[in-house]
Amino acid sequence: MAAKHSTYSVVVEMDNAKSIDWDEIGLGLKTLAREIAAVSAKGHARPKVVISHGGPDGDAASLRRHIEAEAPQLGDVAEIGFAACPDGRYYQLKNNGVRLSEGDVVVFMDSDTVPERNWLSSLLAPFEVPEAICVNGHTYLSHDDFFSRTFALIWFFPMARGDRRFAAKRAINANNVAFRRDWISSHPFPEHNGFKVSCTLLRHQLLREGHEIVNVDARAFHYSPRGWRFFYWRALVTGRDADRKFVALHAPNRTRRIIKSFTRWGTMSWRTTRRVIGHAPQTGMPLWQIPFSLIVGLAFYSLAFLGHFSLADGLVRDEIEIVPDYVGHS
After folding, report:
1. Is residue 327 part of a domain?
2. pLDDT in 10s for each residue of the chain, 330 residues
3. At what angle do helices 254-279 and 228-250 cross, to 10 degrees?
């Protein structure tokens, strides 16, 4: 008798779609369709794909037309549903998508990620064991020029290849992760002012409950951030989020937070130096660009220190982080 495969849904958030082109979104959805077709051929039931967006219900018709134009294959292999969450932020869209999901497992993918082959089968396979609650994939940044190569080196994603030590310690990738649906339905991504803090809080919730996070080689690339405006804003937010995580996980006083801002600056500066020098050749970066890449990386984490210190010292208020209109790429 053939083994019974887990049923599943895929939630695709459209928050990041505001700052990339539809041909880039379409590539991700085409590869999603390919991955669904591959696991369906192995016996998995037809899934539901939930497109979770931050507009009103009326936007569903326009989104469906775009999807049919860019990735017509998706409708052939999956049921497509739309979940509206007007003005919803990144994690709110994910939580809202879960409400419309079906099946045993919920797979999360972002509108600006593109899965490699065997991505979906790698995420689903561990759920054949009933104890599996969370399966985490491997996301890396694509790169094709100096700036994107630098981001790939200094970012919080591991490199695509040759980065086993960092990859083994990777945190939950909200853009490349799957959960048992009954668990994520009762443990949504926490509400938080931070930009990318909720996945860290959810990870610690999993560990507190004694659940193992299964890291698998389910690879997907994320389009690289672009532009100096994004660089400046994201660096400051990275620092502020670091302070928020420290407060949430350690509940320290202001003095400890300020000290942490300095120690983290030193840690990230050293990490950046090691990664740029050690991994730059595998990105195809010419030797003469490596010193400039190092300068850019150290500048990023110096700005992050300013963001961290400013929030820790009370120089800025802890307000909800929203991507400003002037940022050109997520």
Report:
1. no
2. 345 788 999 999 998 666 568 889 999 999 999 999 999 999 999 999 999 999 999 999 999 999 999 999 999 999 999 999 999 999 999 999 999 999 999 999 999 999 999 999 999 999 999 899 999 999 999 999 999 999 999 998 888 876 777 767 778 899 999 999 999 999 999 999 999 999 999 999 999 999 999 999 999 999 988 788 889 999 999 999 999 999 999 988 999 999 999 999 999 999 999 999 999 999 999 999 999 999 999 999 999 999 999 999 999 999 999 988 777 544
3. 130
* CA–CA distance, 45 with 295 (Å, rounded to integer): 50
Can you give the pTM of this predicted structure?
0.94
Q: Would 3 be classed as within a structural domain? A: no
Q: How many Å apart are CA 111 and CA 116, to the nearest integer?
A: 15
Kindly state whether residue 123 falls inside one of the protein's structural domains. yes
My answer on whether 46 and 149 are in the same domain is yes
Tokens of 116: 């490699």
Q: The domain containing residue 250 runs over which residues? A: 228-312
SS3 327: coil
User: Residue 112 falls within a domain, yes or no?
Assistant: yes
Tokens of 268: 């990230």
Instruction: Return the amino acid letter for 96.
Output: N
Do 71 and 175 belong to one domain? yes
Torsion of CA 84, 189, 37, 21, to 10 degrees: 60
- Nearest-Å Rg of the Cα atoms of the chain is 20
**Residue partners of 169: CB distance under 8 A and separation at least 6:** none
Let me know whether 159 and 253 are in one domain: no
Same domain, yes or no: 163 and 236: no
